[in-house]
């Protein structure tokens, strides 16, 4: 697969580390000078920018958490005068103030568009592609990140925006879309709508590649999407605080996501103690931006659970570190009758069953004094009452085998679970508190 920036993507790791250290030191000086929040935090722990002499010294720096961005809403974390900012994005947090970041021209053109162009090229996007971007263009970083990156590669971008599934499909057909982006749960939904319209995405559309992120999606869901659309599925990771999508993507070998280490320093820490963990050890991903000027962020606790690979060499030739696909968010875990459960465990069971469709919801309720786990799942094809009942029974025992807890499973028809918002809402907690 052609690389967008071969010199940097295959750079010798000693050189890469030299670049990282130089950029880390610049960033630390920048935030100490320009962001009162960081100056205060560094002073509290007694660290001065000059103390960062090696990459290992990063552990001397304090962590940044989501609430720090909320407390400094809207522009308190900016390290540039607002007049130098040319764009703003914010995450769609449902509680509290939205996490808001600003970008200067360098952040958009030299950082975000560059890393997105690398990610998209890694997934095989070329200037010959018609690239449809079915993500709402707005405060959410998703659409703009893909847009800038795909344009930088030279593809023909179809900025179809969010929703209106039937229209999305018509545009795909009319414009001959070959590559699509977005959120995996929406792509599954789009596939289901196509089938309902009597269209077979495999035969009637030319979309043969897709790149998705913004929410955890299991190998099972990736496989499901690949089959539904006859496309190669790529996983792209990112977050508003780091620019948006573009932190990492998997290459054609689909064995971990390459993180652009010339723009981010990556660590894995114990979610409880904050102690650094080694390669192959699961923990919380912590990221530091080392090139962004608008809102640089030091040691950001992402809440995303993953691990780094031991090896930094990959058959694709890239030398940048790889992370495993995000397994879950630490705050996605719920506890029911004393058992810790991640939605991904349930998704894993559901997606292995060929009769199951792509969409599901986990609803937690209280029955009397007992917490109850309810799973509502769409079937792939419309089923009779008897067939639904049989599938419910089958899934109940399969989930029980994994969780050692009996769920209540309800099977509904394809497309019957309402699709709201950009990201799938997998867990609805209706328990009495
Ligand atoms: O979701 C940015 C994005 C847009 C990434 C489109 C990829 C594609 P936020 O709204 O700030 O930004 O949410 C960031 O989403 O901390 C993860 O928990 C989750 N997330 C993002 N990408 C992935 C992925 C965008 N590939 C939060 N796999 C992150 C799993 C992901 N989770």
List the helices and strands and how they pair.
Elements lengths: L5 H4 L3 H22 L1 H10 L20 H6 L15 E4 L9 E4 L1 H18 L7 E3 L8 H13 L2 E3 L6 H11 L3 E5 H13 L4 H4 L4 E5 L5 H11 L2 E8 L4 E7 L6 E3 L4 E6 L13 E7 L10 E7 L15 E2 L4 E2 L4 E3 L2 E3 L1 H10 L3 E12 L2 E10 L5 H19 L4 E5 L14 E3 L4
Parallel strand pairs: 3-4, 3-5, 5-6, 6-7, 17-20, 18-19
Antiparallel strand pairs: 1-2, 7-8, 8-9, 9-13, 10-11, 11-12, 12-14, 15-16, 17-18
Helix pairs in contact: 2-3, 5-6, 7-8, 8-10, 10-11, 11-12
This protein binds 5'-O-[hydroxy(phenylacetyl)phosphoryl]adenosine.
The site of 5'-O-[hydroxy(phenylacetyl)phosphoryl]adenosine (DLL) has 19 residues, from α6, β7, β8 and β12.
Write a structural description:
This protein is an alpha/beta fold. The protein folds into two domains: 331 residues, ANL, N-terminal domain (Rossmann fold); 96 residues, ANL, C-terminal domain (GMP Synthetase, Chain A, domain 3). 33% of the residues lie in helices and 24% in strands. It is built from twelve helices and 20 strands. It has an eight-stranded mixed β-sheet with strand order 4-3-5-6-7-8-9-13. The chain has a four-stranded antiparallel β-sheet with strand order 10-11-12-14. It has a four-stranded mixed β-sheet with strand order 19-18-17-20. The longest helix is centred in the N-terminal third of the chain and has 22 residues. It binds 5'-O-[hydroxy(phenylacetyl)phosphoryl]adenosine. The site of 5'-O-[hydroxy(phenylacetyl)phosphoryl]adenosine has 19 residues, from helix 6, strand 7, strand 8 and strand 12.
């Amino acid at each position: 697969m052609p690389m967008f920036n071969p010199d940097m993507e295959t750079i010798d790791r000693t050189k890469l580390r030299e670049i990282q250290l130089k950029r880390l030191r610049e960033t630390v000086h920048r935030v100490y000078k320009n962001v009162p929040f960081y100056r205060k935090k560094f002073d509290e722990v007694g660290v001065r920018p000059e103390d960062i002499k090696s990459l290992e010294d990063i552990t001397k720096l304090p962590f940044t958490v989501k609430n720090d961005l909320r407390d400094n809403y809207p522009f308190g974390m900016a390290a540039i005068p607002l007049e130098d900012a040319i764009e703003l994005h914010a995450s769609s947090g449902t509680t509290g103030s939205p996490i808001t970041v600003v970008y200067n021209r360098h952040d958009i053109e030299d950082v975000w568009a560059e890393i997105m162009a690398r990610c998209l090229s890694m997934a095989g996007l070329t200037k010959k592609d018609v690239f449809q971007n079915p993500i709402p263009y707005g405060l959410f970083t998703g659409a703009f990140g893909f847009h800038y990156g795909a344009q930088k590669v030279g593809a023909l971008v179809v900025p179809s925006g969010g929703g209106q599934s039937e229209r999305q499909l018509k545009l795909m057909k009319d414009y001959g879309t070959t590559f699509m982006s977005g959120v995996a749960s929406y792509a599954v939904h789009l596939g289901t709508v196509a089938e309902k319209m009597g269209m077979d995405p495999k035969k009637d559309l030319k979309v043969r590649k897709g790149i998705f992120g913004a929410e955890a999606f299991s190998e099972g869901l990736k496989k499901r999407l690949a089959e539904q659309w006859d496309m190669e599925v790529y996983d792209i990771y990112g977050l508003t605080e780091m620019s948006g999508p573009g932190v990492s993507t998997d290459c054609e070998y689909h064995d971990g996501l390459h993180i652009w280490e010339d723009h981010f320093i990556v660590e894995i820490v114990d979610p409880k103690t904050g102690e650094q963990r080694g390669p192959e050890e699961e923990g919380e991903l912590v990221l530091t931006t080392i090139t962004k000027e608008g809102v640089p962020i030091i040691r950001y606790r992402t809440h995303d659970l993953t691990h780094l690979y031991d090896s930094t060499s990959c058959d694709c030739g890239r030398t940048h570190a790889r992370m495993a696909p995000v397994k879950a968010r630490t705050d996605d875990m719920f506890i029911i009758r004393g058992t810790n459960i991640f939605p991904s465990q349930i998704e894993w069971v559901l997606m292995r069953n060929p009769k199951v469709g792509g969409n599901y919801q986990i609803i937690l309720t209280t029955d009397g004094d007992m917490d109850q786990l309810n799973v509502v799942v769409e079937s792939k094809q419309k089923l009779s009452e008897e067939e639904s009942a049989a599938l419910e029974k089958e899934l109940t025992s399969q989930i029980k085998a994994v969780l050692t807890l009996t769920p209540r499973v309800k099977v509904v028809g394809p497309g019957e679970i309402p699709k709201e918002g950009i990201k799938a809402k997998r867990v609805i907690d209706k328990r009495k508190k």
